[in-house]
Amino acid sequence: xxxxxxxxxxxxxxxxxxxxxxxxxxxxxxxxxxxxxxxxxxxxxxxxxxxxxxxxxxxxxxxxxxxxxxxxxxxxxxxxxxxxxxxxxxxxxxxxxxxxxxxxxxxxxxxxxxxxxxxxxxxxxxx
Length: 127
Prior knowledge:
Elements: H1 3-28, E1 33-42, E2 49-50, H2 60-67, E3 76-78, H3 84-87, H4 91-101, E4 111-115, E5 118-125
């Protein structure tokens, strides 16, 4: 193997390892401000996004909030610089996705969702 080819393969491998590390590192960072996705039952006839068929793989914060006794998901710990949000799934992503799917369900600070015949107001909070 030529020297140039070997150096190119080494460089590609280093870039791949660096990108994998950047993807895995944010989930191990345990510092930062906690954010929670909350689901509060409400009485309304307004439009709500149907979340009966969502999975915990796609919406882990939403399903966690709907299944918990206090209506709060597990915390999402944001970092100080905002880099973690580029590489990880956040509760903000879930509210944004639901808002884009059903724009009429959006509220000023969250989104209305319907599950098992009940309507919830879902929003991200920071205690």
